[in-house]
Amino acid sequence: MQPFADNRRRLLERLPPGSAALVFSGREQFRNRDVDYPFRAHSDFWYLTGFAEPEALLVLIHHADGERHQHVFVCPRDPKAEIWTGRRLGVEAAPEVLGVDGADAIDDRDEKLGELLRGIESLWVSFSDAGEWFPQLSPLIGRLKRHVRDGVSAPVAVRDLDAVLHEMRLIKQPWELAHMRKAARISVLGHQAAMRRALTAAAEREVETALWCAMAEAGAERPAFNPIVASGANACVLHYTENGAPIDSAGLLLVDAGAEKHFYAGDITTTFPARGRFSPPQRELYEVVLAAQRAAIKTVAPGVGWNVPHETAVRVLTEGLVALGLLQGEVDSLIEQKAYERFYMHKTGHWLGLDVHDVGAYRVEGQWRALEPGMVMTVEPGLYVAPDDDSVPACWRGIGIRIEDDVLVTEAGHEVLTAGLPRTPEEIEAFMHG
Question: Which CATH number does the domain housing residue 20 bear?
Fold first, then answer.
C-alpha cells in the first residue's frame, strides 16, 4: 500500500495547516429491487487508499501545529451479512492494512468527525461531488459551532479539493504508468479480436462480445467505459452505445472501447471495413483522418500547448475535406469560420488515467496549459458525414471515422501506449484477412 501512503503524504504536504480533507469511496447504487449495479470506488478515494469498498471515508488532517493525522471510516465486519455480500476489511484491520493512524465504523462517522475536526479552519472536499458533500457539511459545522463556549473553533471555509488533488493525479507516477501500459495492451488485444470477429458477425453485439471476452481473458477487471460498436451510419452518432443493430456489410465499423486494469483506463478507437475491404470513398476519408492523427501525435512533447495537437488535426482535416470536395474555399478562412465543425465537431483528445476522461485543468490562468512529462492524453480526430446530408455526393453519406490512441508525454517527446494495432488501410485489410 506504499504508493497510496505516498499519495496521502503528498496531499497533506499541499494542504495548509489547520486543514482537513474528506474523501468518500461512494455508495452502492440499486439497479432494481434488491440488485445493485457493480460497485467501483471513486477514483480520488482509490488514489489515496487502494481500498475499494463502498461506504468508506478518508479523513486527512493537517493540524495548525503541524501534526498530521490519517483516519478512515469503514463498514464494520458482519459475519452474517458477509455470507451474502462477501468479506469486509473491518475497523480492526483497517489501520494496519491501509497504513493510517486510526479507524472507526462508518455508522459512528458523525460523532467521531466532530471530535477529529475540532480546531480545523478549512474543510477540503471535491466540488465535483458538491451534491454529496454540501448537505452533510452544514450539520457537521453546526454541531461544532454548538461547542464554541467549550473553546472549540469550527471551520470557517470550505475549499475545493479538486484544485489540489486533481493536479496531483494529472502527472502519472511510474507505478501508475505500469498499470496504464497494461490497460493499453489489453485494450489493443480487445480491438484486434473485434476486427477479426467483424468479418462474420451479423450484429454489433457479437463484435462487442468478442471485444470484451478478449479483454477479460487478458486480465481486464471491467470496461473503462460503455463501449461503442457502431456499424455504418451509426458511427455518425458520437456516443452511440446501443450496439444492437445489424452489421452493414458494405459499411465501416467504428469501435471505441478500452479496458480497465488496476483502476486505470485504456481508450482506443478503431475504424475498419466490416468485411475487411475499404471502398474507394471510405479509404479516401479514412486516410485524411489517419494523416490528421499522425500529425497531431507528432506535436506531443513537453512545453507544447494542450491545444496544439487539436489545431494541427483541424488543419489536416480541413485540407483533406477541401481536397475531396466536401468543403470549398481557402483553408485558413474555413478554419477561422470553423466550417470543419460540420464534419468534425469534437476536440482531438482528453486526459486519461483513473478516469477515461481524467481529471486536471486544460487551461491555467486563462491559457492553454503546456504539456509535461507524465501526462497521458488521447489523440482522436475524426470525420462524420451525416447520412441525410444531401448537400454532399451520396458516396460520402453515412461514413463515420475516428482513430484514437493513448499517448504519454515523455522527457524526449511522447510514447504511444496503444501501439500495435493495424492503422493504414493496407495494414487493416492484411490483418483482417491474414
Answer: 3.40.350.10
Concerning whether 411 is annotated as a catalytic residue, the answer is no
The reply to whether 332 belongs to the active site is no
End-of-domain residue from the set 108, 137, 169:
169
pLDDT at 132 over 90: no
Q: Name the catalytic one among 63, 159, 275, 346.
A: 346
Residues 260-284 have a mean pLDDT of 98
Residues 269 and 398 in one domain: yes
CA distances to 284, 298, 375, 406, 423 from 414, rounded to whole Å, are 28, 8, 10, 10, 18
Q: Are residues 388 and 299 in the same domain?
A: yes
Judge residue 156's burial from the number of C-beta atoms within 10 Å of its C-beta, 0-12 exposed, 13-18 middle, 19 or more buried: exposed
**pLDDT tens digit sequence for 15-36:** 999 999 999 999 999 899 888 8
- Contact of 294 with 316, CB cutoff 8 Å: no
Q: Which of 48, 53, 58 is nearest to 8 (CA)?
A: 48
pLDDT on residue 154: 79
Active site residue 380: yes
Residue 426 has pLDDT above 80, yes or no: yes
Give the whole-angstrom CA distance, residue 86 versus residue 78. Answer: 10
- 346 is known as an active-site residue: yes
Q: Is there a catalytic annotation at residue 340?
A: no
Q: How many domains does the chain have?
A: 2
Check if 433 is active-site: no
pTM, two decimals, is: 0.95
- Does 149 score more than 70 pLDDT? no
239 labelled catalytic: yes
Q: Is 185 a catalytic residue?
A: no
Q: Mean per-residue pLDDT for 400-409?
A: 98
Active site residue 404: yes
The pLDDT tens digits of the residues spanning 199-258 come to 999 999 999 999 999 999 999 999 999 999 999 999 999 999 999 999 999 999 999 999
| Domain around 28 | 2-169
Selected catalytic residue, list 176, 355, 404, 406: 404
Annotated catalytic residue within 256, 260, 355, 406: 256
Are 19 and 145 within one domain?
yes
Looking at 63, 350, 369, 397, which residue is catalytic? 350
> Residue type at 377?
M
* One domain for residues 213 and 317: yes
Answer with the one of 169, 190, 219 that is the final residue of a domain: 169
